[in-house]
Request: fold
Amino acid sequence: MLGIASRRLRSGSIAVQRPARSDTVSRRVHRSSGDDQSVAFLLETIWLGLKNLRLHMLRSVLTALGIIFGVGAVITMVALGEGNKRAALSEIEQLGARNVIVRSQRPPESASSQGGSQRQGIIKYGLTYEDFRRLEVNFTDADFIVPLKQVGAELLRGEKKLSAQAFGTTADLQGVANLRIARGRYLIEQDLHERGSVVVIGHEIARILFPLDDPLGETFRIDQHVVTVVGVLEPIGLAGGAGAALVGRDLNKDVHMPLTTAQAVFGDILVRRQSGSFQASEVQLHEVYLAVPSRETVLRDAARARRIIEVGHRSKPDVEIIIPYELLESARKTAVTYNLIMVFIAGISLLVGGIGIMNIMLANVTERTREIGIRRALGATRRNIVVQFLVETGVLSMAGGVIGIVLGIAVAEGIEKGVPMLVKLPIASKYLSEGATFQTQVTGWSIVLSFVVAAATGLIFGIYPARVAARQDPIVALRHD
Reply:
């Protein structure tokens, strides 16, 4: 009997446990069914929001205009700023980020007279060969130390005449100053040993003196000395840019000859006659390019070069130190500030667009009060109403963001390609210089940032209208006409 009871107890316990499993399964099925219904209801709500936007297409497009123009303005402004920054940086890097340029400069007249460097109308100033030797002794770790000696007053070929920017230098200048040869060759060591009357000319010199002829092998005069062209440099983007301001001249008008020829033929006296005036100066070296081992040490090496040069120039300020790397860093910081200001200004358009979305959606709430009451009466929760309105504002802002991105990229590309064509028009030529260009560079971060801000703007400004709609009393809403 005990065994039978025991078996019945066990069977009873089993019978009691089965309904418990059945309840668990039923709850899981009910929960799964509820989740499916929630997802279906959410999808239906999204579809309804999209349908409402499609039914009022013109109003939707007009509402999104603020977002479209805001995003387009952000991308275009950043593209212009980034393009200008890269153009300036490339110009500065053309001078070499590891270079320190030591340059002679004409001192003020008072400093000249006090220093006793003016005799017989000739002003003596600037770098000397002794300064160059001191730099060589103290910078044994430098990659290159390249001198430049300015010579001549005029370049002459036939009836053509222009002021000279002729310099005696060495073959190392090509690598130090990042010069590229378009035709022919650059100076070589043999030219220095033989004191050859050969020159390498800049792109503008070739265009002015040899407009229809091949410059290679042709001759022209520097003052009264005849020289032969052996090479033509590629156009240098420093003309008129930050680099030109840094070096004080247009490098496309340079003429380079062997330093030994410059010393032997022209000497140290430089005479210039302009508009009836006469000016004579004695300058042994015009510039010295100092190529230091790394960017990390360029500022420290520049300070050391300044101390070395000051030893022989304490009486007058006739030598300056130019550090392209310093200008490079300054240009980067300026570009970042410029981008931030432009993004802030363009962001105002996004703010206006967000306010426009909020106004339209508030009007939408009033217009669709009866629809909201019907939905609430049929079982829609406040959350469903909020989701519906947020879907509409989210789609408006994101669609506006996408269109704005396309517009911004198109405008940026159009500016870069259209300005050179615009310059050719007679009207535009009065306001734009010949050869004017606008370099633009669309950045990935500006696209992502503007889209995220546009989407966030729509959602943020859509929350208040959505909450107003959700708080509607169903009974009052149903009575609304």
